[in-house]
Design goal:
With 248 residues, this protein is an alpha/beta fold. The termini are close together. 33% of the residues lie in helices and 22% in strands. The chain has two domains: 111 residues, Rossmann fold (3-Layer(aba) Sandwich), CATH 3.40.50.10090; 124 residues, 3-Layer(aba) Sandwich (Rossmann fold). The strands form two sheets. It has a six-stranded mixed beta sheet.
Length: 248
């Protein structure tokens, strides 16, 4: 390589699971891997939620795409003094998200449906229950595929913005450099430039996950050195490992 690859900053919180592949990557290639969330979540206050003119009692089902959506849905219900009916149906994008509902409801006594991982899979279940009135709790940032598929299937739904993705303060990193920066979302790229408007890539390698993240990086003039998923590297750590091997 032009420069020894020794340090990586991943723009996400440090994994709680010690089995994270990033720890294996660090050990295998003798890397210093740091984690720092470039964005964070802030809940929408109930006063602002009310301006969306959503009557929670009108919905017979709720579509849940993340743990954040679950946490903030129940928070809003509590703040607005809405009692969640036992009859409410829950449609979750994955089993892991469905199981997270146990934090708030008695799982076995509720009507809970889940896909395997992709929203397209969940849509099949939603279509089979198309007589329901669906609420979609979400962030201010939402992948187009979700409303597009709901509208194409003529699903009766309403989106409720109950939390926001906010740029984190990274000022303490101003004089810190890394050989590689890893991004998982366009919001991470946005955070980089809001915190450091004069950021220059120079020899820093840029790793991105997903096509939308790649487009956001290139729009800022960044050269993307590592991309995932790829046919030979479906994971970000796999793609980084291949890059290190090819350039060492």
């Amino acid at each position: 390589m032009e420069k020894e690859f020794k340090s990586i900053l991943v723009s996400q919180p440090k994994p709680e699971n010690k089995k994270s592949p990033y720890f294996g990557l660090a050990e295998k290639y003798d890397l210093n891997v740091d984690f720092r969330s470039f964005i964070h979540i802030e809940g929408v206050y109930s006063k602002e939620f009310r301006t969306q003119k959503i009557n929670l009692s009108e919905y017979s089902a709720v579509i849940l795409t993340s743990r954040n959506a679950i946490d903030h849905f129940f928070r809003i219900c509590e703040e607005t003094r809405h009692t969640v009916p036992d009859s409410l149906k829950y449609f979750c994008v994955s089993e892991a998200i469905a199981l997270y509902l146990q934090k708030y409801v008695v799982y076995r006594k509720r009507k809970i449906f889940h896909g395997r991982q992709r929203f397209t899979e969940l849509m099949e279940l939603i279509k089979k229950n198309n007589k329901e009135t669906f609420l979609l709790p979400s962030s201010d940032i939402l992948k187009d595929i979700i409303p597009n598929q709901l509208e194409e299937a003529s699903i009766n739904y309403k989106r409720a913005i109950i939390y926001r993705t906010v740029v984190s303060d990274l000022s303490d990193l101003e004089n810190v450099t890394y050989d590689c920066l890893v991004f998982y979302s366009p919001a991470g790229i946005e955070s980089l430039y809001k915190n450091f408007p004069g950021f220059e890539q120079n020899n820093t390698k840029i790793a991105v996950f997903g096509e939308t993240t790649k487009k956001a990086a290139e729009k800022q003039g960044l050269k993307v050195d590592i991309g995932a998923p790829a046919p030979n590297a479906p994971s970000m750590t796999g793609a980084i490992g291949l890059y290190i091997k090819a350039n060492s």
